[in-house]
Design goal:
Elements (H helix, E strand, L loop, with lengths): L2 E6 L6 H10 L3 E4 H8 L5 H10 L12 H8 L3 H24 L6 E5 L14 E6 L2 H10 L4 H10 L4 H6 L2 E4 L4 H23 L1
Parallel strand pairs: 1-3, 1-4, 2-3, 4-5
Helix pairs in contact: 2-5, 3-5, 6-7
């Protein structure tokens, strides 16, 4: 089995940048959001689950999940969000396990997921890395990406204070510095991952 790495962090923490740098360093990086998008296609298990939860109006005419309709519901209704997460997280977990199983034992396969720890994925991984930055830094980044401040604050609030995430991580990366600082941290992480993968092969 490949070395499995969980990469997590809150909204606009910089985890996607870290995932990209890890991929450039030779790791296989899998974005949980892309896995969900695949599961939400017509006829896929995610679309079926969403229809069962929220009815046919949650799907578009082609049978895929209507992201806008579902997003509007779950970001204003905590119970709806929890129900959706309970239905979708196991599907993402299973799909990632299928992807990881297709790689060689020497590979490093990374799953980038915001709620990785909270969803209970922790035991699946050899190492969990959390990318962290202060809330105000992340808020500014989210707004700079085009989110309205109200929406950005709502998403940050929905993700909680991150304590459980940090407690579940084996390692933290501070992304509040310069891009060069972050790249250096990832370089060190890559060296450690290669060493771990090598030890796992023995």
């Amino acid at each position: 089995m490949a070395l499995l790495v969980g990469l997590t962090g809150g909204l606009a923490s910089g985890k996607s940048t870290v995932a990209r740098l890890l991929a450039e360093g030779g790791c296989t990086a899998v974005d949980a959001d892309e896995v969900v998008a695949d599961l939400y296609r017509p006829g896929e298990p995610g679309a079926v689950a969403v229809r069962e939860l929220f009815g046919p109006s949650a799907l578009n005419p082609e049978g895929a999940v209507d992201h806008r309709a579902v997003g509007a519901k779950v970001f204003t209704d905590p119970e709806a969000r929890q129900a959706l997460e309970a239905a979708i997280h196991p599907l993402v977990r299973r799909r990632f396990q299928e992807i990881a199983a297709s790689h060689s034992p020497s590979a490093v396969v990374v799953l980038e997921a915001t709620l990785l720890v909270e969803a209970g994925y922790g035991p699946d991984f050899d190492l969990i890395v959390s990318v962290e930055a202060p809330t105000e830094v992340r808020l500014a980044r989210a707004i700079a990406r085009g989110l309205k401040e109200e929406d950005a604050r709502a998403r940050l609030a929905a993700q909680g204070d991150g304590l459980r995430r940090r407690q579940g991580a084996h390692r933290e990366i501070d992304s509040s510095g310069t891009p060069e600082d972050l790249a250096q941290e990832v370089t060190v992480l890559l060296a450690d991952l290669r060493a771990l993968a090598g030890r796992k092969l023995k």
